[in-house]
Amino acid sequence: MAAKNIIRKYTGKPEFQPQPGEPDPLTGQPLFPYLPDKDLVEAVNLAIFLERPLFLRGEPGCGKTRLARAVAYELRLPYQSWSVKSTSRAQDGLYFYDAVRRLHDAQIAGLKRQGAEASKPIEDYIAYGPLGKAFLNDTRTVALIDEIDKADIDFPNDLLVELDEKRFEVKELGGKEFQASAPPIVVITSNDEKDLPDAFLRRCVFHYIQFPDKDQLLKILKAHYPQSIEELTIAVIDQIIARFLELRQNMETEKHLAGKKVSTSELLDWYRLLWKYDPETPISEKLAEQLRYPGVLVKSWEDYQRYGAKKV
Amino acid sequence: MNAEFPLLDFFYALHQAGLPLGIDDYLALLRALQGGFGHDLPALKRVCKALWVSSPDEEHLFNYHFAQIEPELLRRLRIQLESQGVERQVLEQSNEEIPVAGEEDEHPVEIPEPDASEPPLPEAAELLHIEDEMEAAQMVTAIQVQRQDIELPPITRQFVLSGNYFPLTKRQMKQNWRYLRQFVREGVCTELDVEATVQEVGRQGFFLKPILVPRRVNRIDLLVLLDQGGSMAPFHALSERLKDTAIRGGRLRHARVYYFHNCPAEQVYHQPARIDAENLQRVFARMRQTSARVLIVSDAGAARGFFNEQRLAATNDFLNALRRFAVRIVWLNPLPQFRWIGTTAGALEQYVPMFEMSRRGLDQAINTLRRHS
């Protein structure tokens, strides 16, 4: 059974990326290329090799959530995603026992006086959550636990045994245990809003996603909007990037580590607006004066007054 | 240093510095090395960081201790890794598969025993062209034998606050803060109350709909007042740590921090440098709406060791004013208890529960804060 445990390495190279606009077979949404830097690729491969979860931190908008989908796409593995909410419990990711519906059905059966034949077996009322499905899968699945710090502090602690030993038990089936035959590749993202318990962090491989540099940004823009390369000259694209980096630099000096700075996803939106919206006005004119379409880049009133209202 | 277990001393140093590491973290490093990660020194540093470092504080400690490793050790390690790296490159070009750790016997990370005959000390350029592992081993042991005294690294002027210096570690503080809770059910009804539902079913005879209750939330509103400057200067780092853990790790509903000097007069400050002032009356007014618990961190004159009547009177007035708005007031003193006798702090102890900043003291302080009025 060694064959199903051996997988290729994740490389993030352009030949393995989806074409922009290619629909996701699972959701139908368009897929975009994901260009990681080599430290991130190394961290992913380390996590895959050691069979430990990969813990990603970084600014909002730097691409933490989309890494898992990109890894699943390149390695052609199944993908499960779990977006954690503040009301989430650890058990919900593994399985969900619909007690209310069962009671309801039992009531209806009782009213109709149909007896035991009408009552369905308990397995019908147990639905497996994303992590549970990943454990039950025969091939290694990429499982994403998104924004784990949104939940209660007990939440990561409740997942310790499951992540360590790759098994979980279902109380309602009499304590039946399910052991993962192919250990899933777990990617956990965090927005750094709350501190997580040490016992949980210890089991993970860490990586902090840095903001990409100028060349990397250019590659990302080219990969997302390849037609724009034909329509706009490299000089214009360089201007756009330079303007963006200037804005980010100003925000960094003034806000340091606190406060939200412009991120990669905002650049992508802004770039698209500059390119496609109002095509009659040349881009150089749009860049010459104040920050055009500031609502895409700056998201608070103070930021808008400081950076958006007049030329930086 | 044992060649079979690279960086073991470094691992111990990190563990003693306070990083929460266990033996299987080191074993994970060995497995990663066997799997081909960490093929050169920067990559090795990245692998160690990915496995062991989980926060910016720890990263600072990690970098500091990594810089402390003797350069000779690093050089030997680099040779060792690069000689293996060449072999691994040949393997990698043939197939890009990663075997699952522990399935195959990978090349162990060790140098074979030295030979009796020693080759002459090689030039630095020669070291980079090593093809054969045996050759590398012989060269390394040649260096080992001929270099009798290893120079110590220069003393660096860098100060790093490691966790073991303070009477309370950050982790202990976080754990203590979690006890400061008073759960109350409020908000939107989202949770199922099974007992009430079952009772309702029993009353009605059949099941209509589930009974929902709101989730429990922590009702505690904490106000922290930190004394800054003067005799409290040596304790600034401790206060900052306390404030940090209270806000980030405590799961309190509200945690507000203000700074003052010696005794809060009409104003308290938002910043440690005592700028950005706020009127004390406004702070009180906000406290009245949410039944606030107040924690004051100050030495109360115990650091200098004098008894100051004016300070005692002023502090008492402040406490009396505070008592009208706060449900509980607790005083934390960074000096140990035996230092309070004969000072303003000793006199103040009669008016307000005062605790020292040890694990037990913080425990008791939080217990007192938590009690219902």
Describe this structure in words.
The complex is a heterodimer of chains A (312) and B (373). Chain A has 312 residues and is α/β, with parallel strands linked by helices. In chain A, 44% of the residues lie in helices and 15% in strands. Chain A is built from 15 helices and twelve strands. Chain A has helices at 38-50, 64-75, 90-94, 99-112, 130-136, 154-158, 160-165, 198-201, 214-224, 226-231, 234-255, 264-276, 283-288, 294-297, 301-308, and strands spanning 7-8, 22-23, 30-31, 54-58, 79-83, 95-97, 126-128, 142-146, 167-170, 176-179, 185-190, 205-209. Chain A has a five-stranded parallel sheet, sandwiched between helices. A two-stranded antiparallel sheet of chain A has the order 2-3. In chain A, β2 and β3 form a beta hairpin. Chain A is elongated, with a radius of gyration of 24 Å. The model of chain A has no long low-confidence stretch (mean pLDDT 83). With 373 residues, chain B is of the alpha/beta class. Chain B has helices spanning 8-17, 23-34, 41-52, 56-68, 71-94, 124-127, 133-146, 170-178, 194-204, 236-249, 280-289, 309-323, 344-348, 359-370; strands at 97-98, 183-192, 212-218, 221-227, 254-260, 267-269, 277-279, 292-297, 328-333, 354-356. A five-stranded parallel sheet of chain B has the order 5-4-8-9-10, sandwiched between helices. In chain B, strands 2-3 form a two-stranded antiparallel ribbon. The chains are: A alpha/beta (312), B alpha/beta (373). β1 (7-8) of chain A pairs antiparallel with β1 (97-98) of chain B, so a sheet runs across the interface.
